[in-house]
Write a structure and sequence with these properties.
Layout lengths: L1 H15 L15 E9 L4 E9 L4 E7 L4 E8 L4 E8 L5 E10 L2 E10 L2 E11 L16
Antiparallel strand pairs: 1-2, 1-8, 2-3, 3-4, 4-5, 5-6, 6-7, 7-8
């Protein structure tokens, strides 16, 4: 009898350690409407930012700096890697890449961006806003 008990425990461990499986069908952890600000000490710039992240992780939004405002579009993958473009009517586009963090109901990122061939560092911090809620129940860090 003891032999069968040990086999049952080992079988339970093997089944329980199977991992999460295919998570591609799950909604994005970052889904929701986000409002906040961004800044870049490298470029001495910053302003307001809004993001609307859909279930598949794609996002649209707006970004403003000292001189103008523009639109945002891109993707946050399931590992928290952000890629996007900020399109301005004047001053060139921002090609953006970085890692997103979710903590205490806030969406934030340290990112780099390129404008007119020059790379800068920046960051943003957003809370749930815009009439829809973000994923406020999650805490932790996701890197990209």
């Amino acid at each position: 009898m003891r032999k069968y008990g040990l086999v049952a425990i080992l079988a339970g461990l093997v089944v329980g350690c199977g991992g999460a499986g295919d998570t591609s069908h799950l909604s994005s952890l970052y889904q929701g409407s986000w409002t906040g600000s961004w800044s870049s000490s490298d470029a001495n710039d910053g302003g307001a930012v809004t993001l609307i992240v859909t279930a598949d992780g794609s996002f649209t939004g707006t970004i403003a700096n000292k001189f103008t405002s523009g639109s945002l579009g891109g993707q946050i993958d399931k590992n928290g890697h952000l890629t996007g473009i900020g399109s301005f009517t004047a001053g060139g586009n921002m090609i953006i890449g970085g890692a997103v963090t979710m903590s205490s109901g806030r969406l934030s990122s340290n990112f780099s961006y390129v404008v007119n061939g020059i790379q800068y560092g920046g960051s943003f911090d957003c809370g749930a806003g815009g009439g829809s809620t973000g994923s406020t129940g999650s805490t932790g860090t996701t890197g990209g």
